[in-house]
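Q: Second attempt. The first request was missing the SMILES, so the protein and flavin-adenine dinucleotide are both included now.
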Amino acid sequence: MLKMVVCIKQVPMVSELPWDPATGTLQRDLAEGMINPACRSALEAALRIRETEGGEITAITMGPPMAEEVLREAIALGADRGVLLTDRKMAGSDTSVTSCALARAIERTCAGFDLVLCGFSTSDSETAQVGPQLAEELTIPGVAYVNSIEVAGRTVRMQRISDDFLETLEMDLPGLITVTADADSQRHVPLGGLQRAFAEADIATLDAEALGLDPERIGVKGSATRILNVYSPTAAKKNLVLTGAPKRIVEQLFARFDDKIGGAIGKDLKMDRKP
Ligand SMILES: Cc1cc2nc3c(=O)[nH]c(=O)nc-3n(C[C@H](O)[C@H](O)[C@H](O)COP(=O)(O)OP(=O)(O)OC[C@H]3O[C@@H](n4cnc5c(N)ncnc54)[C@H](O)[C@@H]3O)c2cc1C
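A: Got both inputs this time. The predicted holo structure:
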């Protein structure tokens, strides 16, 4: 029977994300929240493992109080219980502080866990740092960017796409896996899921004090990372007229743009060029 933890971040629903043209920033507070797509894949992976191996699934999230919504959705989809880490003092936490808080919560609420599943990255911040940092915090092995998982006893066999290779890896439990957003297609909320999520949900709420976190090392104060600017990149356009015979034009084109052309076709043209 496997004891699994799925880390789920609530992210803004992109289609509803209003943009403030005056400041050039996203108005997150006005957007509907949803389960981060890669976290949904991590939950789906845990549900499939439980179908064959048995076990229990704890969904855990850190965020403002409204993040509880993603725990209810996870329970509706089949998770056994939820843990919400919320505290205004933890707002503005960078990935390192977030990983530390998640680790302490997992140790306190899921002692003896076997497998931690995370999304590989989030759709709103996209650092892809929390999974690997969480494995470090928990002092367990971790494998990132996985798109297929099989459990056999105390060993997990995984596949992941790395550059142009498909890698097959094995890891002994306990361990942590980050799952890609395209892994395994996902289920819909089953009949009875809503009853479980709203009438019977087992959700524990913890704050920084309950986690035993040092108040100096949480939130903005405890985070070493600073976001200096957020802006929408603009693409500049410039027209260039190349003249001469076709051979001369092609030579000019490669002389000016061979790094870009090489990048697009995946070849270093300087190395490829015949002497
Ligand atoms: C009160 C409060 C307010 C917050 N407000 C914001 C906010 O406005 N914007 C914001 O981006 N973050 C907010 N956070 C959360 C925290 O700062 C981020 O989760 C963290 O910096 C993650 O960065 P990332 O999205 O790049 O993660 P990545 O490293 O890209 O995430 C990879 C995976 O790690 C796991 N993970 C990451 N974050 C969490 C999480 N919070 N809970 C559970 N699992 C997680 C998921 O499995 C995810 O798929 C808040 C936290 C608190 C307590």
